[in-house]
């Protein structure tokens, strides 16, 4: 059981998703620019695809009943792709190519590898079945059918399908606009010299990359200094241009953790402290009408909480059709001897022992380490109040699936 002041992950996600309005703005983009975007409307098939019966192979179109033993069949026509054929003359065959329209009167196509060409015509050296090697009209798409639903994320596959229906431009939801605010007087931007007690701001770049992978638009990146009023002013300014504010750090219980305090003072803090490891001090609220997702400050915690908590929220805001994560059940190749009341997300990767897959964990799971995330390919889930021994089955999610 989670401690009373820790919110179980499922309850936290239910709350987050109930407070995740879909972006309302729509824009029309060229099909070539639609990759990764979310369709804002249903797409129905305007015409059959393919528009007519066509050949699946290079060969000869003919009518099966015209085959008579070893008697050659004369070739009466040649049908290149892109030309409308004339009806097939009875008792003859037509040279045909992949994608060429089937002439009226033909009921089969024999691939050229099964044909012997003679002076008197062609000899078919294979059994022929009616309809063989013919792609029927509407076989891929039938006019009026729903081809792609609103909320579909456009991949190369969907780009090709839209092109096959003649769509040159598509209506998509505008990108979710996100502000990234890092907290801490100790933070220095990469490229600058470090002074005593200073560290480089790695969280900003981790979040920039994650948000780019998630199809968001970053509209603001700033560092919040450890002052209450400065924190409040920057949050309010970010709220004017962003659909979502993501902060790193400043949500724990220290005297310099001002993000949580500002949200509390504004009456906008609705979630704090989750029963996950790493990442207990996750906060969710709003300021100036804009949602704020407050992530912990440790780099490992930022990655894990964004993937586990932030991505489901962002997917809902983006209007993407829901798709449950499947993960894999894989035997563990590590040990956890001390059970935690929090659900643990272990930075891990799939490996092979003999011929069998296992999930291996990075030896040091400190939330301050990013090297573990670079070694890992995903997260292994250790349920609450559970120890792990080698061979125990665990659910493993790849980073690719968590970001999909």
From TrEMBL:
UniProt cofactor(s): Mg(2+)
Pathway: Cofactor biosynthesis; molybdopterin biosynthesis
GO CC annotation: cytosol
MoaB/Mog domain sequence ranges: 179-316
Catalytic activity: adenylyl-molybdopterin + molybdate = Mo-molybdopterin + AMP + H(+)
Family listed: Belongs to the MoeA family.
Lineage, highest ranks first: Bacteria, Pseudomonadati, Pseudomonadota, Gammaproteobacteria, Pseudomonadales
GO biological process per UniProt: Mo-molybdopterin cofactor biosynthetic process
EC number per UniProt: 2.10.1.1
Record-given protein name: Molybdopterin molybdenumtransferase
Entry keywords, A to Z: Magnesium, Metal-binding, Molybdenum, Molybdenum cofactor biosynthesis, Transferase
Pfam families cross-referenced by the UniProt entry: MoCF_biosynth, MoeA_C, MoeA_N
Record's function text: Catalyzes the insertion of molybdate into adenylated molybdopterin with the concomitant release of AMP.
Molecular-function annotations in GO: metal ion binding; molybdopterin molybdotransferase activity
Family annotation (NCBIfam families): Glp_gephyrin, molyb_syn
């Amino acid at each position: 059981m989670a401690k009373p002041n820790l919110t179980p992950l499922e309850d936290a996600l239910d709350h987050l998703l109930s407070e995740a309005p879909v972006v309302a703005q729509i824009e029309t983009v060229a099909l070539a620019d639609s990759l990764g975007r979310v369709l804002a409307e249903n797409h129905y098939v305007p015409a059959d695809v393919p528009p007519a019966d066509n050949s699946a192979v290079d060969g000869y179109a003919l009518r099966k009943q015209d085959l008579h033993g070893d008697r050659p069949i004369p070739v009466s026509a040649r049908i290149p792709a892109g030309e409308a054929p004339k009806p097939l003359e009875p008792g003859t065959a037509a040279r045909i190519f992949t994608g060429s329209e089937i002439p009226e009167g033909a009921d089969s196509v024999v691939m050229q590898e099964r044909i012997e060409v003679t002076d008197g015509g062609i000899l078919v050296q294979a059994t022929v079945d009616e309809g063989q090697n013919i792609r029927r009209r509407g076989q891929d798409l039938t006019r009026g059918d729903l081809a792609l639903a609103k909320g579909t994320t456009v991949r190369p596959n969907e780009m090709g399908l839209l092109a096959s229906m003649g769509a040159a431009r598509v209506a998509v939801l505008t990108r979710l606009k996100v502000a990234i605010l890092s907290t801490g007087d100790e933070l220095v931007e990469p490229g600058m010299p470090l002074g005593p007690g200073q560290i480089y701001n790695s969280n900003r770049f981790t979040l920039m990359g994650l948000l780019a992978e998630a199809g968001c638009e970053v509209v603001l990146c700033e560092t919040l200094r450890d002052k209450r009023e400065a924190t409040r002013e920057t949050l309010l300014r970010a709220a004017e241009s962003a659909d979502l504010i993501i902060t790193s750090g400043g949500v724990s219980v220290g005297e310099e953790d001002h993000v949580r305090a500002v949200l509390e003072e504004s009456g906008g803090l609705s979630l704090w402290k989750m029963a996950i490891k790493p990442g207990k001090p996750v906060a969710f609220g709003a300021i100036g009408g804009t949602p704020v997702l407050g992530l912990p400050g440790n780099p490992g915690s930022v990655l894990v909480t964004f993937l586990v908590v932030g991505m489901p929220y962002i997917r809902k805001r983006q209007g993407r059709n829901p798709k449950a994560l499947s993960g894999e059940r894989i035997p563990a190749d590590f040990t956890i001897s001390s059970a935690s009341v929090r659900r643990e997300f272990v930075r891990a990767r799939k490996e092979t022992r003999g011929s069998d897959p296992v999930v291996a964990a990075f030896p040091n799971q400190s939330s301050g380490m990013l090297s573990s995330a670079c070694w890992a390919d995903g997260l292994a889930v250790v349920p609450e109040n559970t120890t792990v021994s080698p061979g125990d089955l665990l659910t493993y999610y790849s980073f690719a699936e968590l970001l999909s």
